[in-house]
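Box 3.1. Reading complex inputs
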Amino acid sequence: MNWLLRLKHWLEFLGGATDAVPRSFNGPGGWVLLAVWWMALVGLITLFCRQASKFIYIDF
Amino acid sequence: MIFDTFSYFLLFLLPAALLFRGVAPSFRAPVISLFGAAFFIYFSLTTVGGVAGAFCLGLFLWEALVSRFYRPGSALCLLGIVQALVILFVFKYWNFTAGLVAGPGTSWRWTGAFLPLGISFFTFEFIHYARDRRENRTEAGGFWEYLAFILFFPTMVAGPIKRYQDFLPTLRSPTRDWANDFERGCTRILAGLAKKFVVADCMTSLTQHLNATDIARAERWILPFWLLAYAVKIYFDFSAYSDIAIGSARLFGMKVKENFDWPYAREDITSFWRHWHMSLTRWLTDYVFIPLGGSRVATGRIYFNVLATFLVSGLWHGAGLNFVVWGLWHGAALCVHRWWTGLRGDCVPSTPVRWINWGLTMTVVTLGWAWFTMDLPTALLFYKRLFLG
């Protein structure tokens, strides 16, 4: 189950939910990875934003 | 929409966060309050409520003024709670109640009814402050500090529901690590937007079939997939919203408590509710369940308290009988789990049993979404088709 915990930690880090940097992220390569991740997110958002609908919990 | 608009980021979030970090500490609360007021007026005019909705800013100003007179043990705090409940009732439940009492065609209906932006959330923060001041669990803070608390726009519309005790220290001493805050905050916001657009909105092609016509015509095997798609959609939609709210607060150097913690990975319904919409669960526990007696009463009364708390939760989610059933559905599931835990004792379940527990929990939660997303007749039709063909 150790790999599951590591995956959870990575997902939380990539989602901005934790400040704790995964061990394998340290070093300059980590920041390159983060820049690529941001670009990927912006790309996905741009690609999919046209089908946007209202947030469920607004106006309720 | 709000959180997925350029105006939110360019007119409100970035200027407010930068100004907040740049001004002297005594101006921080006024900056948040003024931007919050502008945010409320702008999005009332452009999304919900219109001009009348924008005038509801007066509710915040009135609340901020009245709250200055709250004292420990004071009856005025109780009046503040009643006032918040009356506001919520008039805007959200008047027509529902009139329809129940006098029938659907009654002249008691408020034809121009509208919901002020974020009313379900800000009234809970009003009640929390009044109650905690009465119990002397929080300091009064200043006028601008309380106004900043209720008008803090990242969390104003749909939470997470804040506590004044948590908010005040972070308002007075926001973190000074700009680089880390902006990096983590922006990552959180981008991840939230991606969750919303890429996952939640993609589920709409399946969830749009959850209506009487499509359910009546559909093949039976497809029905669980539509409901499962809704389970995915509501989680990614609401947790994305919370991500953007928490990430936005981070740009101010302020930390807001988490609202979700892997709820669909939980192995029982009690644990699910401890990790789903956590700020609401905590609020309901502190301001409904415990005042009713909590779990320090006779067993039968505990079950009543759980059911009553989830009835309130259901009604808070919407003025409709389907939400009442949804609340009672979860209340009943929690009672069954409580009863079963009492029978079973403290034994540690084996791995296969844990998988079974997870499957059962997901089944109860997913079936429950039918009551949440469809009106009562449609949900009943869904169940009839699902189980009886």
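In summary: Chain B has a mean pLDDT of 92.
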